[in-house]
Amino acid sequence: MASITIRNLDVSIKEKLRLRAAAHGRSMEEEVRLILGELGNAIPMATPAMSTTIRASGSLSGRRILLIIGAGIAAYKCLDLIRRLRERGAQVRPVLTKAAEEFVTPLAVGALAADKVFTELFSREDEHDVGHIRLSREADLIVVAPATADLMAKMASGLANDLASAILLATDKRVLIAPAMNPRMWNHPATRRNRAMLQKDGIRFVGPNKGEMAESGESGDGRMAEPLEIVAAIEGLLARRQKPLAGKTIVMTSGPTHEPIDPVRYIANRSSGKQGHAIAAALARLGATVRLVSGPVTIPDPEDVTVIHVSTAREMRDAVEQLLPADAAIMVAAVADWRTANEAGEKIKKKPGEKAPALQMIENPDILAGVGHSKSRPRLVVGFAAETQDLLANAKRKLDKKAADWIVANDVSHATGVMGGDRNAVRIVTRLGVEEWPDMSKEEVAERLAAKIAAALQTVEV
Ligand SMILES: Cc1cc2nc3c(=O)[nH]c(=O)nc-3n(C[C@H](O)[C@H](O)[C@H](O)COP(=O)(O)O)c2cc1C
């Protein structure tokens, strides 16, 4: 196989090559590859010192990811991230910050990525064609993982005093960051300001999760998202041909139910449907065929989702049963536990001297348990538990009673403002333990949950 080392070329040839590459909007490396390709000597994108096998097909086949690795303990997870991305056909070009070299060696990163590792802003080898601009130009997506507090601060203030920050300032490509830091750093007012600024600038976030820190005895918000969650987020942004949930069918419920007392009155709850509808939209964006059974809500139907509108718990149950089998069931609706035993056919009239009518209640069908125990049980069954007390104990009980895989528990006490509001702080209860997510917008909860569902469905299939 032919190969050329550009820096060994004669100066005048190098100049001609530079001009030709610039005229075509390509890097010199790409230009050489094309020239050699035309001569029947195609060389691969990466010319690794130590090569690993690249799978030519996959959900990220041919996608070019510039991975900026910051100086956090979580940097070691990037080795797994690189492997997972390459397994899916992505080309990963790594950039290490100077400090990140203290946490992970360029040798290991380069070997797994099968590409050169870039570290220097002022590099004699790479700056002949303005390396930081080229690195950005040659990427479909820039991923920063771990995104340190320092890198986030630089990004938020537009600093460009090293290769990583210069790339991030010079790029017009989408940027996804996976923050990882100590909870006190994450919750510091400065980091909060930077987060808000980056979100405003359109930077996408995956994580962080709540959990144990590398420092002994520390736990809280700031743990980097797991490699598969990051992969799912990348696939959500990049996978053009095949989205991570393409071909998967997901049944969902959302909103409240209305249980009639008479033709004009009903028993309901404060669920707005915002969280369930946001999850349905996020799953659809990842390519899933989503069928959403919605109780009465005032918000619009989510995009690219088939919505079946119902009113009562029994109608919701019937609609869900009709929609099985499916790959996953995500039951977000706040289904009324009870309904009136004897719905009046006519409006109940107030009559002078008569006592207020006593409502007799009977239990409604348990839709989540029905799905969990169904013969057509989906591979992944997720329920929501809205509680005002003993949140975790109730969620854990629900997990078993309803034969669910995960319960997403949220505190809906009046003071939290979750019911009807725009924010949510959830805990994901599984048989392996409890994952606590920090307070975030319902849209963010939806994105993260959709990524987690995508990762779980992929894992189940392996
Ligand atoms: C042992 C150790 C662990 C660290 N872990 C983190 C971390 O997880 N997240 C973080 O933001 N900073 C962490 N830091 C601090 C960063 O390494 C430091 O701010 C560094 O300058 C960041 O460089 P970079 O943003 O250019 O990669 C850690 C420092 C040490 C010594």
Automatic annotation (TrEMBL):
<feature type="domain" description="Antitoxin FitA-like ribbon-helix-helix">
    <location>
        <begin position="2"/>
        <end position="37"/>
    </location>
</feature>
<dbReference type="GO" id="GO:0004633">
    <property type="term" value="F:phosphopantothenoylcysteine decarboxylase activity"/>
</dbReference>
<dbReference type="GO" id="GO:0010181">
    <property type="term" value="F:FMN binding"/>
</dbReference>
<feature type="binding site">
    <location>
        <begin position="365"/>
        <end position="368"/>
    </location>
    <ligand>
        <name>CTP</name>
    </ligand>
</feature>
<dbReference type="InterPro" id="IPR013321">
    <property type="entry name" value="Arc_rbn_hlx_hlx"/>
</dbReference>
<dbReference type="InterPro" id="IPR007085">
    <property type="entry name" value="DNA/pantothenate-metab_flavo_C"/>
</dbReference>
<comment type="similarity">
    <text>In the N-terminal section; belongs to the HFCD (homo-oligomeric flavin containing Cys decarboxylase) superfamily.</text>
</comment>
<dbReference type="InterPro" id="IPR005252">
    <property type="entry name" value="CoaBC"/>
</dbReference>
<dbReference type="InterPro" id="IPR035929">
    <property type="entry name" value="CoaB-like_sf"/>
</dbReference>
<feature type="binding site">
    <location>
        <position position="384"/>
    </location>
    <ligand>
        <name>CTP</name>
    </ligand>
</feature>
<dbReference type="InterPro" id="IPR053853">
    <property type="entry name" value="FitA-like_RHH"/>
</dbReference>
<dbReference type="GO" id="GO:0015941">
    <property type="term" value="P:pantothenate catabolic process"/>
</dbReference>
<comment type="pathway">
    <text>Cofactor biosynthesis; coenzyme A biosynthesis; CoA from (R)-pantothenate: step 3/5.</text>
</comment>
<dbReference type="Pfam" id="PF02441">
    <property type="entry name" value="Flavoprotein"/>
</dbReference>
<keyword id="KW-0288">FMN</keyword>
<dbReference type="GO" id="GO:0015937">
    <property type="term" value="P:coenzyme A biosynthetic process"/>
</dbReference>
<feature type="binding site">
    <location>
        <position position="347"/>
    </location>
    <ligand>
        <name>CTP</name>
    </ligand>
</feature>
<dbReference type="GO" id="GO:0006355">
    <property type="term" value="P:regulation of DNA-templated transcription"/>
</dbReference>
<comment type="pathway">
    <text>Cofactor biosynthesis; coenzyme A biosynthesis; CoA from (R)-pantothenate: step 2/5.</text>
</comment>
<feature type="binding site">
    <location>
        <position position="402"/>
    </location>
    <ligand>
        <name>CTP</name>
    </ligand>
</feature>
<feature type="binding site">
    <location>
        <position position="398"/>
    </location>
    <ligand>
        <name>CTP</name>
    </ligand>
</feature>
<keyword id="KW-0460">Magnesium</keyword>
<feature type="domain" description="Flavoprotein">
    <location>
        <begin position="64"/>
        <end position="235"/>
    </location>
</feature>
<dbReference type="InterPro" id="IPR003382">
    <property type="entry name" value="Flavoprotein"/>
</dbReference>
<keyword id="KW-0479">Metal-binding</keyword>
<comment type="similarity">
    <text>In the C-terminal section; belongs to the PPC synthetase family.</text>
</comment>
<keyword id="KW-0210">Decarboxylase</keyword>
<dbReference type="GO" id="GO:0004632">
    <property type="term" value="F:phosphopantothenate--cysteine ligase activity"/>
</dbReference>
<feature type="domain" description="DNA/pantothenate metabolism flavoprotein C-terminal">
    <location>
        <begin position="245"/>
        <end position="455"/>
    </location>
</feature>
<dbReference type="GO" id="GO:0046872">
    <property type="term" value="F:metal ion binding"/>
</dbReference>
<dbReference type="InterPro" id="IPR036551">
    <property type="entry name" value="Flavin_trans-like"/>
</dbReference>
<dbReference type="Pfam" id="PF22513">
    <property type="entry name" value="FitA-like_RHH"/>
</dbReference>
<comment type="function">
    <text>Catalyzes two sequential steps in the biosynthesis of coenzyme A. In the first step cysteine is conjugated to 4'-phosphopantothenate to form 4-phosphopantothenoylcysteine. In the second step the latter compound is decarboxylated to form 4'-phosphopantotheine.</text>
</comment>
<feature type="region of interest" description="Phosphopantothenoylcysteine decarboxylase">
    <location>
        <begin position="1"/>
        <end position="249"/>
    </location>
</feature>
<keyword id="KW-0456">Lyase</keyword>
<keyword id="KW-0285">Flavoprotein</keyword>
<keyword id="KW-0436">Ligase</keyword>
<dbReference type="InterPro" id="IPR010985">
    <property type="entry name" value="Ribbon_hlx_hlx"/>
</dbReference>
<feature type="binding site">
    <location>
        <position position="337"/>
    </location>
    <ligand>
        <name>CTP</name>
    </ligand>
</feature>
<keyword id="KW-0511">Multifunctional enzyme</keyword>
<feature type="region of interest" description="Phosphopantothenate--cysteine ligase">
    <location>
        <begin position="250"/>
        <end position="462"/>
    </location>
</feature>
<comment type="function">
    <text>Catalyzes two steps in the biosynthesis of coenzyme A. In the first step cysteine is conjugated to 4'-phosphopantothenate to form 4-phosphopantothenoylcysteine, in the latter compound is decarboxylated to form 4'-phosphopantotheine.</text>
</comment>
